[in-house]
Amino acid sequence: MMPSLLAILPIIIPLTAAAIALLLRRNFRLQAAWAFGAMLTAFGASAYLLWTVWSTGRPVVYQMGRWPAPFGISITADLLSATMAVMVQLVFVFGFIYALGAKDKAVHHSTFYPLFLCLVTGLTGGMLTGDVFNLFVMVELIVISGTVLTAMSDDRYGPEAAYKYFLISTVASFCLLFGVGCLYMSYGTLNMADLAARIAADQTPALLPAAIVFLAVTFMIKSAVVPFHFWQPDFHTASPTPVSAMLSSVVVKIGVYGFLRLTTLLMPHADWLRTLLIALGIVGIVFGGLGAAGTHNAKRMFAYSTLAQIGFIHVGVGWGTPLSLTAAIVFTFNHALIKSTLLMLSGYLASRAPVKTASFGVLRGTGKYAPLAGVLFFVGGMALAGIPPTNGFISKLTLFQSGIQAAQSGSVNGTLTYWVPLLLLGLSSIITLVYVFRALMKIWWEPFKPDVPVGKVKSSGDSLLAPSLMIATCIALGVWAQPLLQLSQDTSEWIRQPQAYVQAVLGERTGWLK
Amino acid sequence: MEIIKALSIGALFGIGLYQLLRRNVIRSAIGLVIISNAVNLFLLSIGAYDGVVEAYAKAVGQRSDALPQALILTAIVISLGGFAFVLALLYVIAARYRTGDSDEVKGLSH
C-alpha cells in the first residue's frame, strides 16, 4: 500500500461504511455491528497514521486523484491533524459503545448509525484536509448530520434545538465560504499550504483582512466562543446522549483546530487575532463558569462548562508560546475525553430517572440508586476541575506553567496579557468545583423527593461501560501523562514551522509557482 | 458591469440578513436561502473579472476562471439538501408549537 494512501483512510472508511450501513437498515443489529466495526477500523487507521507521522517525522500527504499539489485536494496529515483525528475517533469509539448500550428510541432508528458515521467523517475530514474549500464541505457535513441527529432526539424540544443550530451554523458556513472566496480572489489558490506560502510572501491584497475575519467568525461560531455561543447550550441539551457527548466534546474542536491552523499556518503574524482570542477566551471562561453554576439541568450545565473549557484552550492558543500551544493541544485532547464522559453520565442518570430528563428537579436524590455512576461522576468532575491524579490536572498544570513562564520572560503588557488571565483561570477552576459539587450534592446527597409524584427510578438504564472505560482512560492519561505531553510538545514544534508543512505538500514544485 | 454585480450582491446580503432576523421562522429560512445566493453570486464574480490575469493560466483575453463555478455547484448542492431538511423541520416545529413566531418557540429556554 502506498504510504500516502494512509492519510485518506480515516475519512474514507466511515464515509463508505455510512453508505453501506444505510443499505443494512432492515437488520438493526447487523447495522449496529457493522457501524461499530467500521468505527474501530477507522480508529485503527488513524492511530496507525499518527504513529507513521510521528515516527517518520514527516507529514503524510495524499493528492486526491493524483492531481499535483495546488490544483487538487491535498489530504495533509501533519502531526496536528493526525493528533486531532485520533482524538476525534477515540472519543467516537466510546460514543459508539455508549450508543450500543443506550435505550433511546432515536438510537434505535435505522438512520442513526449512518448519520453518526457521517458526523465522524465530517470531523476527521475537516481536520485532515489541506484545502479550504474541502474544509467547507466537511463542515457542512458536520452541520447537516448534527442537525438531523438532534432533530430525531427523544427530547421533545429536539427540532427546536436543531433549527437554532442549523440557522446559526449555516450562517457560519456561509461566512466560511465567503472567506474562501476572498482568499481565492486574492491568491488564486485554495490549497492551505500554497495559501500559507503566498500570504507570507504578499500581504497586500485588500480582501485578505476580510478573509481572515470571516474565517475567524466561522471558527468562533463553531467552537462556541462567547458572543457566538447562543445555539450551544440548547443544542447540546436536546440531542440524544451519545450525540450530545460527541457534540460538546469533539465537534466544537473543529473551531479550535481552525484557530490553531489560522494562527500558526495562515496568519502567523496576526497579533490582533491572538489578542482577540485571549480576550474572548477570558470572557468565555467567566461566562461559561457562571452560566454552568446557575443551570437547572445536568446536560445544560456541562454544555455551559464547555464554553469555559474552550475559553481555556483559546487563551492557550492566543498566548502562542511553544509551551502554551502544547498546553492548548493537551487541553483539547483531555477535555474531549472528560466532557463526553460527564455528558454520558448525565444521560445515564436521565435514562434511569422516572421521566427521561436530566433536569435537577427530577434527578434530585436518584443518585442513591446509581452508586457506580456516582463514583464515575465524582472522578470525572475532579478531572474537569483539574484535581490530580486525573488528566484534567495535567492540562491545567501545563497551561498555568506556560502562562507563568511567558509572563516571567518579561514581555510588554505582561500584566494584562498573562497575569490577569492567569488569575481569572484560577478563579474559574474554583467555579468549576462549585458547580460540579452542586450537581453531586443535588443528585447523590439530597433525599429522593421528586417535586411532582412522577413514579419510581427505573431499575436499568443505558450501559455504563463507555463512561467507565473513559474514566479509566482519563486516570491513565493523568498518571502516565508523558506520551501525550511529548506528542503535544512535538505537535507544537511542528506547527510553529509552517514551511515544513508547505514543503511537504507542494514538494519541489514551490519554485515552479513563481 | 462590476458595479452592478457588487451592488446586487450587497443588496442580496442586506435582504437576506434582514429576513434572517425576522421573527417568523419561515422568513428566517428564506433569509438563509437569499444569503446563500448572495455568497454564490460573489463566488461567481471572483472568477469572472474581465481583464484581470487569471489564477494560473496568465492567458490574455476575457475567459473566466472555471473553478469558482465548480465551488458554486458544490455549495448549491449542499445547501439544497440542508434547506430541504430544514423546511421539513419547520413543518414539525409549526405543528408542534402551533405558531410560526420564533419568540413563541422557546421550549428550551427554561
TrEMBL record, chain A:
Q: Where does the record place the NADH:quinone oxidoreductase/Mrp antiporter transmembrane domain? A: 130-407
Q: How does it sit in the membrane?
A: Multi-pass membrane protein
Mind listing the GO molecular function terms for this protein? NADH dehydrogenase (ubiquinone) activity
- What's the superkingdom here? Bacteria
GO biological process: one example: ATP synthesis coupled electron transport
Matches recorded under InterPro entries: CPA3_Na-H_Antiporter_D, NADH_UbQ_OxRdtase, ND/Mrp_TM
Q: Name one Pfam family in it.
A: Proton_antipo_M
Subcellular location(s) of the protein: Cell membrane; Membrane
Keywords from the named record: Cell membrane, Membrane, Transmembrane, Transmembrane helix
Asked whether the keyword Cell membrane is assigned, the reply is yes
**Mostly located where?**
membrane
* Segments crossing the lipid bilayer: 6-25, 32-51, 71-100, 112-129, 165-187, 207-231, 243-260, 272-294, 369-387, 418-441
Q: Name one GO cellular component term.
A: plasma membrane
Q: Which protein family is it in? A: Belongs to the CPA3 antiporters (TC 2.A.63) subunit D family.
Q: What is this protein called?
A: NADH:quinone oxidoreductase/Mrp antiporter transmembrane domain-containing protein
Give the species this sequence originates from: Candidatus Thermofonsia Clade 3 bacterium
Q: Lineage of the native species?
A: Bacteria, Bacillati, Chloroflexota, Candidatus Thermofontia, Candidatus Thermofonsia Clade 3
TrEMBL record, chain B:
Q: Which GO terms describe its cellular component?
A: plasma membrane
Q: Which UniProt keywords apply?
A: Cell membrane, Membrane, Transmembrane, Transmembrane helix
- Record's keyword annotation contains Amino-acid biosynthesis: no
Superkingdom to which the source organism belongs:
Bacteria
Its topology with respect to the membrane?
Multi-pass membrane protein
Major localisation: membrane
Pfam families from the UniProt entry: Oxidored_q2
Tell me where the transmembrane regions lie: 6-21, 28-49, 69-93
Record InterPro entries: CPA3_antiporter_subunitC, NUOK/Mnh_C1-like
Q: Where in the cell is it found?
A: Cell membrane
Q: Which family does it belong to?
A: Belongs to the CPA3 antiporters (TC 2.A.63) subunit C family.
- What is the protein name given in its UniProt record? Cation:proton antiporter
> What taxonomic ancestry is recorded?
Bacteria, Bacillati, Chloroflexota, Candidatus Thermofontia, Candidatus Thermofonsia Clade 3
